[in-house]
Amino acid sequence: MDREARVFAESHFRSLEGCLPRRVCPKLDRVDFIEKPDSFSYADFFKGYLLPNLPCVFSSAFTEGWGSRRLWVTPSGKPNFDYLLQNYGDVVVPVANCGVREYNSNPKEHMTLRDYISYWKEYIQGNYSSSRGCLYLKDWHLCSWSVNICGRKKWIFFPPGQEEALRDCHGSLPYDVTSPTLLDSRLHPMRDHCSPPLEVTQEAGEMVFVPSGWHHQVHNLEDTISINHNWVNGCNLANMWHFLQQELCAVQQEIIEWRDSMPDWHHHCQVIMKSCSGINFEEFYHFLKVVAERRLLLLAKGMGPGKVEGGKGTRLGPQQAAFDICRIAEVLESVVAHPDFQRVDTSAFSPRPEELLQQLEEAVAATTSL
Description:
Blueprint lengths: L2 H14 L15 E3 L7 H9 L5 E3 L8 H5 L9 H8 L3 E6 L10 E5 H13 L9 E3 L9 E4 L2 E6 L39 E5 L4 E3 L5 E6 L4 E3 L9 H18 L10 H13 L3 H21 L16 H20 L1 H4 L10 H14 L4
């Protein structure tokens, strides 16, 4: 990030006056397609899509050097089962059954990749049908980015806020946004208030940027392997904090009747929240702390814009660090003031939240000269 992009970003957040970035979304009739890597910089992506929280699709030219696109795919563009079996066959992977719903999600099991590929081959031979249902290998955690290695996908996007019109009479979101039941006004009384979604077909090698807070649904149009990466940074950190507050409120409402009779009720709410969301207020603070300390160290070292942090290709300079510190400070200030976070025992935290906030505020004041 250069100084111009940082100034642009800080001006953008000042203009929101405390509103969540994801709620600021112009009406779109298409998703932009970015074709040439050489004519598109990180600053272009940051200002055009990351900061305003808008989707885009990157062409296959951006991923043509990926080893997975060369090794995981046959010359005909199909999954290379032999290579996957040879290199990952004994790895245990999570598999969801898309044909069964449990509380608006799918039941999951674990199996070796070898067993899953055996199922996949039988599924193809059975004309994409199986007595075991449609099993979907999902959330196998590899370190990469949402890219189609092979195959094609159809994405359906609803801008932030539009998903509220999809809710049924009980307040639940639909399992399938293409279901004919959405046309029943008795079941979905607000459906007519929802704008048409944006639809994108993702071809092999293409990368889709999914903005924070956009309700979306994905359909594999053929045998597909995709690599996806969830993201959080200074642009959507406030969204993450807002989401966690909503999750805690939902848990508290669910067990409100036991508040007076359950010892450590607030602690139990945090435990339940972690089991549902994978993180609670204490862990969110530690997440902020780790990122904040790395950014503070970067600034303390006085790294120049042309240098890198953490090795080849990271390209995190002082302007990006200064931007991140500013966003972390604003969110941490809200965290420290939250009554439920104040109930968390922070006596063993190092540094204490108030101390870290002071460090960040001092750093923000010092970065005005960068």
